[in-house]
Amino acid sequence: MKTMFHNLQNFYEYLEKLGPGKSIKLMQGLGYEKVTSLSVKIDKDRIIYLAKKLSETKILDLINNIPEKDMIEIMDYNSDEDLVYYIDHLQIQELKYIIAHIKPSEMALMAKELGKESCVRLLSDIGVEKSVGILTYAGVAEMVHLTKQIDINRLVILGQALTLPQCKKWIRKRGLSDLVPLVQSIGVENILTLIDSIGFSKSLELVELLGVDKMIELTHKIAKMKFPLRYSPKEMSPKSKKKTSEHKTI
């Protein structure tokens, strides 16, 4: 009897603060047992805040796709404002994938250190599966440390250009610390030009052979070099063309 009275009090408060239309739609969509269970396990004021900020469709999609245990754990570690931002800027299936692979405490760490906007940008612009793959392979704390040292725009460009296997290979061979001086001293565009020219594996081998400092020194020296003019095929003399043809035959 006491439990029923408490539930009626909660339902009355939902009706009062959310309005009868939204309250009834949510109760019909979730069912009496689900609403009662959430009301017991999650602070009622937090439920009301989230229900006010999110549409009925998003709330139903969220609760019907993400296990209750995970929802409670996420709310334990993350603020309501951060949760609303994540739900508004990520697809529910993307959010479900993130929750399945990254601990709520690690999500909270990312939001605290980088800001929720930067977190969502990294996840959505690089791609959720690739981003999560990098985060879980490198370690969330290590990636947070890296992101604080490299401009997020550069990191996104690099993350978009490389495949997940390439990222994992780099992390396995060189870790993350080398990226900071390379990106700051050479630039993302130049790094990608090198990779495009000789391939990812050869670029990695070059860094391993020379070391980061020598690699930076070499690229700066190359940038200062003056190269002879290259002749196009139209400008080549018949004699030169003949020699080129002979070389190709050989």
| β-strand amount | under 5%
Termini gap: 96 Å
Q: Which blocks of ≥5 consecutive residues have pLDDT under 50?
A: 240-250
Biggest sheet, in brief? none
Shape: elongated
Number of helices: 19
Overall residue-averaged pLDDT value: 86
- String of helices and strands: HHHHHHHHHHHHHHHHHHH
The Rg value, from CA coordinates, equals: 27 Å
Instruction: Provide the structure class.
Output: mainly alpha
Strand tally is: 0
Work out the helicity level: over 70%
Can you characterise this structure?
The chain is mainly alpha-helical and 250 residues long. 82% of the residues lie in helices and 0% in strands. The chain contains 19 helices and no strands. It is elongated, with a radius of gyration of 27 Å. The termini are far apart.
Keywords:
disordered C terminus, 250 residues, elongated, 19 helices, mainly alpha
